């Protein structure tokens, strides 16, 4: 036992608890129960350890110990690879796949959450050493709040207006509003599609949103989330019953066609609104003009 | 081999209209055409698309 033992234990505890707090199993059914959670709690513990020893080593004037943190960076990049590989492997067996963009987003989140754990542990140990355990706790809470803000991204509902439209057939062509979805030839398939199908129009609120929802990964994420939450009327070997999202080239609206098991319009609207905007899909074409104008003046 | 966007079969009631080079099922009437298209759709894991009233294609997507 030395003067740093308690602060380090404190930091590790706070960090691990932060990781557990951020590790929520939600409608995405990810991480899966127990084993997936154990892996991430263990990695969170390692991250917390790394964050906790940083301040004591600076105070001991052992600056080389800080290089240890670079080890953390490569360690957690590995976490991202691991998540990406697992999810990509599993994706081919999903009824409605997540899509590469969504997977990348989830993998990034797993990596960055470990860095947030390092940050939380570091800050709380700093508070403990400079003042006392109570200040350490306050620092930990503040860091937790910052982490929470950082880890919650935007939602589709913020950038588009969602509207329910009943899908219709024009000949063999399936339409949602005026957006062509696909050609379904067999009359009995058409009946199924009209019976179970739901159509939604996503109307972008501005020019940036238009590019963001045009992204194929973002559209796949919407289809995946709706299908996970409401079930899907589909089996392998029925490609005609696949949910699709197509774009109106004139004004950038996106027509979403899904075949849920549970036809609940209000719930579906809520789910589409709550789909995360994937950070890899976000585009800001208007920023280009703004920055050019700034550089000219 | 993985096929993408490929016409697997053509089902028609008017054989004079179909191109060569595809597997053609010529049928007597619309009912027969629809039932064959439905079966082929299930067998081939493709989608039956209607090009017009007398011509269906099964496409692998």
Report what the structure shows.
The complex is a heterodimer of chains A (297) and B (61). In chain A, α1 runs parallel beside α5 and α3 (68-91) runs antiparallel to α4 (100-130). Chain A has 2 domains: 5-152, no CATH class; 157-285. In chain A, β3 (173-176) and β4 form a beta hairpin. Chain A starts with a helix and ends with a helix. Chain A is of the alpha+beta class. Chain A is 59% helix and 11% strand. Chain A has a 4-stranded antiparallel sheet. A 4-stranded mixed sheet of chain B has the order 2-1-4-3, covered by helices on one side. Chain B has one domain (6-16, 27-60). Chain B has one helix spanning 30-44; strands at 6-12, 24-26, 47-52, 55-60. By secondary structure, chain B is an alpha+beta fold. Classes of the chains: A alpha+beta (297), B alpha+beta (61). At the A-B interface, α7 of A face α1 and β3 of B.
Chain-wise SSE layout:
The complex is a heterodimer of chains A (297) and B (61).
Chain A (H helix, E strand, L loop, with lengths): L4 H18 L12 H25 L8 H24 L8 H31 L2 H19 L4 H4 E6 L2 E3 L2 E4 L2 E5 L3 H10 L1 E7 L2 H8 L1 H15 L13 E4 L6 E5 L6 H10 L10 H12 L1
Chain B lengths: L5 E7 L11 E3 L3 H15 L2 E6 L2 E6 L1
Number of domains of chain B: 1
What order do the strands of the largest sheet of chain B run in, or round the barrel if closed? 2-1-4-3
Q: How many helices of chain B? A: 1
Trace the largest sheet of chain A across and list its strands: 1-5-7-6
SS-based class of chain B: alpha+beta
Any key phrases for this structure?
heterodimer, A: 297 residues, alpha+beta, 2 domains, four-stranded antiparallel beta sheet, three-stranded antiparallel beta sheet, 11 helices, 59% helix, B: 61 residues, four-stranded mixed beta sheet, 25% helix
